[in-house]
Amino acid sequence: MIEVTQPSLKPSGVERVFVVFQRVAAGYCMLFGILYWVRLIGFYDGPLWRFDLMPVHWQIAASVLSVFFPFAAIGLWMLTSWGPVIWFICAAVETTMYLGFPDLFGSRPLVVVCHGMAALLFILFRVVIHIRSRPPRPAQE
């Protein structure tokens, strides 16, 4: 006899942890966005910490990331499908900046490693959730 079970509408423990992970990532994205805005408006007194004093490559990068990071934070917090996509764009831009052009942007390996770890965790969560959501195979008789 084949037993039919109803799918559960309650989120699993992995899904709940994934929600927390996305919300923490959203907080970091908002923090990074604010830091880029601080750089743009010149609130902090430091070298190249004002838009009109920055070289063009920093003006472009800071302008793009100051908009994209808060946008990613909103998407991640709301658990939308586009939130991780926008975060990935931000991570790819920063990784390219710090790994591809260290002579222009400096070297920040910790930022690159954090983006890589976050991407790996995201992929791991998605794979585990996908595997757990598959219906069980019927038993062979």
Q: So how many helices?
A: 5
Number of strands: 0
Q: What overall geometry do the principal axes of the alpha carbons give?
A: elongated
Task: Tell me the quaternary state.
Answer: single chain
The level of helicity is over 70%
End-to-end Cα distance, whole Å, is 10 Å
- Low-confidence runs: none
Strand content: under 5%
Helix vs. strand class: mainly alpha
Give me the strand/helix succession: HHHHH
- Largest β sheet strand count, sense and barrel closure: none
Q: What is the arithmetic mean of pLDDT?
A: 89
Query: How many distinct folded domains?
Result: 1
Radius of gyration: 20 Å
Report on this model:
With 141 residues, this protein is an all-alpha fold. The chain has one domain. The protein is 70% helix and 0% strand. It has five helices and no strands. The chain has helices at residues 13-41, 56-77, 82-100, 102-105, 109-133. α1 runs antiparallel to α2 (56-77), α1 runs antiparallel to α5 (109-133) and α2 packs antiparallel against α3 (82-100). The protein starts with 12 loop residues before the first helix and ends in an 8-residue tail after the last helix.
At a glance:
The chain is an all-alpha fold. The protein is built from 5 helices and no strands.
Notable traits:
5 helices; elongated; 141 residues; 70% helix; single chain; mainly alpha
Q: Can you lay out the helices and strands and say which pair or pack?
A:
Elements: H1 13-41, H2 56-77, H3 82-100, H4 102-105, H5 109-133
Helix pairs in contact: 1-2, 1-5, 2-3, 3-5
